[in-house]
Specification:
Keywords: 4Fe-4S, Iron, Iron-sulfur, Lyase, Metal-binding. 39% of the residues lie in helices and 25% in strands. It is an alpha/beta fold and 279 residues long. The protein has a 4-stranded mixed sheet with strand order 4-2-5-10. A 4-stranded mixed sheet has the order 6-9-7-8. Strands 1-3 form a two-stranded parallel sheet. The longest helix has 20 residues, at 42-61.
């Protein structure tokens, strides 16, 4: 049994949040450079260049890379041999987020859904936990902006719609979104499970590095087919038309009921801010 004080978790997430607020993932930066160099449409190519300049400046100046500094999403895989001591886990996570958003001068965007009164410190965070084998804690932190989150959708497909239905749902979601989620987008897809679990699968898919493929060949084929069709839409960077509308499509899957085929599509803008650490 390994004892971990939740204060250690708080301090680690605090550092992750500060870093994520001002810099993109390495795979996202690489994909944006490739998109800029590969785009042929003038306005879209210019916009991609501006996006690259923006993340370079934000990182060098330690300033927020986007004005929407997001709602904190924290996903943790906690080893079953870990014994947590100290403050409750959610309290530690929210303390980390509260401190990071104050110290980083990040916009505080969390509010009551009915009254719209701001909580004032960007808490509570969205926290997902899984119990896994081992004595470590894997932490993934994503500050999720809502210009793209609002473009996400859930489809409860008929099983007979199969792979074609899945691909069509992914492409339709991006097409309907158009320029609103600040493309080129990253698309996280959850296939299977239930109404609620497929959405979490989609969020986890977003956390995967761009350029990686699902280990299942048939799921990887869905990723490729969907990406090709999305980039054939011609929406382009910021809606200026062009051949790069999405930087990647990542799919995750889970077994589902014989009568259903849930599919969740979680849209992420070009500004992918994700940090992963192991404690």
């Amino acid at each position: 049994m390994r004892k971990i004080d939740t204060k250690e978790i708080e301090e680690l997430i605090y550092k992750m949040a500060l870093d994520a607020g001002v810099s993109l993932t390495d795979s996202c930066k690489k994909a944006l450079y490739a998109a800029r160099d590969g785009e042929t449409e003038g306005a879209a190519k210019f916009a991609l260049g501006a996006l690259c300049d923006n993340f370079e400046l934000a990182e060098s100046k330690k300033m927020p890379v986007c004005q929407d500094t997001g709602m904190a999403v924290v996903m943790m895989e906690i080893g079953q041999e870990v014994f947590l001591e100290g403050a409750p886990l959610a309290e530690a996570v929210n303390s980390a987020v509260r401190r990071a958003y104050a110290d980083g001068y990040f916009r505080k965007s969390v509010c009551d859904p009915i009254t719209r009164k701001n909580t004032g410190d960007n808490t509570p965070a969205v926290i997902h936990t899984d119990i896994v084998t081992g004595d470590k804690i894997n932490i993934t932190y994503i500050p999720k902006g809502f210009g793209s989150e609002n473009m996400s959708r859930v489809y409860m497909l008929k099983p007979a719609q199969g792979v074609e239905g899945i691909v069509d749902a992914i492409v339709e979601t991006v097409k309907i979104a158009g320029s609103r989620p600040c493309p080129p987008v990253i698309v996280g897809v959850g296939i299977g499970g239930s109404f609620d679990t497929c959405t979490l699968l989609a969020k986890r898919a977003l956390a995967r590095d761009l350029g990686t493929r699902n280990q299942r060949d048939d799921v990887a084929d869905i990723e490729k087919r969907a990406l090709d069709k999305i980039n054939a839409l011609g929406i382009g960077c910021q809606g200026f038309h062009g051949k790069i509308t999405a930087l990647g499509v990542n799919c995750e899957w889970a077994p589902t009921h014989i009568a259903g085929l849930p599919v969740a599509i979680n849209i992420q803008c070009h500004c992918m801010r994700c940090r992963k650490e192991v404690l």
